[in-house]
Amino acid sequence: MSGVPEDPKIKERMSDIKSKVIVLSGKGGVGKSTVAVNLAVSLASTGKKVGLLDIDIHGPSVPKLLGVEGAHLEGSKESIEPLKIDNNLSVMSVAFLLRQSDDAVIWRGPLKYKMIKQFLSDVHWGKLDYLIVDSPPGTGDEPLAIVQLLGNADGAVIVTTPQSVAIVDVRKCITFCRQLDLPVIGVVENMSWFICPKCGERTEIFKTGGGEVMANDMDIPFLGSLPMDPSIVIASDEGKPFVTSYAETETAKAFATIVAPILKLKGRK
Predict the structure, then answer these.
(1) What is the rounded CA–CA span in Å between residue 193 and residue 228?
(2) Cβ neighbours for 120, distance < 8 A, ≥ 6 positions apart
(3) Regions in the chain scoring below 50 on pLDDT
(4) Which residues face 81 on adjacent strands?
(5) Is-contact 160 49, C-beta < 8 A?
(6) CB of 134 within 8 A of CB of 33?
(7) Strand (E) or helix (H) holding 52
(8) Which residues have C-beta within 8 Å of that of residue 144, sequence separation ≥ 6?
(9) Buried b or exposed e, range 79-110, using 16+ CB within 10 angstroms
(10) How far apart are CA 129 and CA 18, in angstroms?
């Protein structure tokens, strides 16, 4: 499945982007979109030019996490301009195309494929160091479409929580990547533990360590663990990425270890 995109318009657009990273999860509710948003923001904060593409057609949450719900896009007959968050970060999501935030997208696979293809061929990202793609959970239409259409993505960051019910599905996600010749950059274990803000006691709500054990078992890198931190919830609800809003917290500092391997990517040919 590796190689340049087959569609000439996608090939032209993607030629201006050095590295493409897809954020995946085997199961919903593990904080994948939160990781994707904060990964993009972290990269942009280092001075890199970053695009964040939300291809969760049925549950796009990236605009909410960035505080840009209800934003409108500009464009022409030839292209769509992504929403500029700042000089280094641009965002595209199906949420920007809905009339109201409560509108449901009731589409079968072919329509979802067509929309993702349009995101890649018609959105004018310009020259980017990174394109981060937030994909819905599982191994269905959207993840398959983005891997096939990109053709030469640098790899996947896979997000899980520690409990076995999530790990089982993440293993399938890794198998999905291998079957499609998509490198796995590594696994992030989210909600690994909780520190009581009153007494400071550490509680492993979901039996921490499952993600690291699974990564070692499947011979893929383990990028790090993130705690269940109330500041993440507050930041997300306020539309302010926690890596910048709560930069001094242990959670934000832990995220730096996750970003480090992404910064070393050189682009896949």
Answers:
(1) 6
(2) 5, 7, 10, 13, 14, 149, 150
(3) none
(4) 74
(5) no
(6) yes
(7) strand 50-54
(8) 180
(9) ebebbebeebbbbbbbbbeeeeeeeebeeeee
(10) 5
- Select from 249, 135, 114, 229 the least CA-distant residue to 182: 135
End-to-end CA distance of the chain: 12
| Sign of the dihedral defined by the CA atoms of residues 225, 248, 36, 5, in that order | negative
- Give pLDDT, residue 125: 95
pTM above 0.85, yes or no: yes
Q: How many CB atoms lie under 10 A from the CB of residue 9?
A: 15
67 and 112 in contact (C-beta within 8 Å)? Answer: no
Do the beta carbons of residue 238 and residue 263 sit within 8 Å? no
Q: What digits encode the pLDDT tens for the residues 37-80?
A: 999 999 999 999 999 999 999 989 999 999 999 888 887 778 89
Report CA-CA distances (Å) from 122 to 51, 119, 250.
14, 6, 39
Q: Do residues 256 and 247 make contact, with C-beta atoms less than 8 angstroms apart?
A: no
Domains and CATH numbers, the chain: 8-261 (3.40.50.300)
